[in-house]
Write the structure tokens for this entry.
Amino acid sequence: MLITGLPASPCCVGRTNATWEAARVGSSAPMSIQVRSASRVSLALLLMPLALCALLASVARAEPDKKPGPVPGSFTIENFRLEGGVTLPKAIVVYGTYGKLNAAKDNAVLLPSHYMAQSDGYDWLIGEGRALDPKKHFLIMTELFGNGRSSSPSNTPEPLHGPRFPVTTIRDNVEAVRRLLEDGLGIHHLKAVVGFSMGAEQAFQWAVSHPKFADKIVATSGTARCWPHGIVRLDSQIRAITVDPAFKGGDYTEQPVHGIETTGAVWLAWLYSQEWWMRELWKKTEPAAATMTLAQFTEKQTKEFFAGADANNLILQMRTWQVHDVGTTPGFDGSTEKALRSISVPVLYMPSETDLYFPLGDARQESKWIRKVTLAPIPSLWGHPAGAGASPEDLAFIERKLRAFLATP
């Protein structure tokens, strides 16, 4: 393994069993996922891209001074074998940190990234005097495979470049980060894992795969599996990219901009609640939006939502999201319920009441299977981004609940 610094970035009740087979990222065919019904039934997830998340959070509150970004780092794992059977010759995990690890090594908090986010994707939740205070905690923000900085279709050489890059799972990401923590940073225990959206998926997986590694789990706007409706939604967004003739099966010479913008339009329709749109709350997302019509706002967001992103990277992280289920962890026979019942640490579960990506009903069902759960739905019209503190009220709610939860023995 190799750990290095990284240049700073300028920069976002019926049960079902889902099975999947490893696939190449650039395939235009649907993912090989079969959903078999048994007796009971998913400013970036999905979130928005990090840029939009940061935008919403910055509008939601005014910070007197912009703090410096996290200290950057990069960790390399040689010959990293994925769940699907493919081995990455060099798996790279990019991360950032705030604060310092204390002598007892008991102040580390992990914040795994959400869709297409970078290590500054949790800056909205971090600060002196806040629940996550760099003066008290050593905060580690890791970046998912596929974001363009950690190992991704766009930055991996042949024979795994572009559409030939294998699908990586949430468990693959958790295992890579475990190696970073233990082998790279010398951390063998965490005070907490705190995750938003796909970060929440990772938080639940940590509690299932490594039940004693973290004292507590916090999940906002994210569930422990991608339920059937989420699988279908994500597939529609993947298809929006792959039907662009410029996509060329993932072997494009120029980004399929039309397809990327189309998937952004689909994404936007799911991002906020129906009432958010009815009340024209887009006018509160940024000063420039205050006078925008609906058509002007949607046109702007459609073009900017994933601007500059690589199509294969976008698809990879959608696949990662799409195939996730803690129930497929070895030893649980595909049962989400059994996996969640195995969690032994306290869980603070904060779904957004109006999230269309990870609906409240899914979270309520999952919470029934978690022994030490505090279910605290975020009362918000901001849909999925409520879990990233999109409005001042959302942020205050998350901060208050998180502070109390972390302070409890």
Notes: Residues 6-22, 28-64 have pLDDT under 50 and may be disordered. The longest strand covers residues 87-98. The first helix runs from residue 50 to 60. The two ends are 35 Å apart (CA to CA).
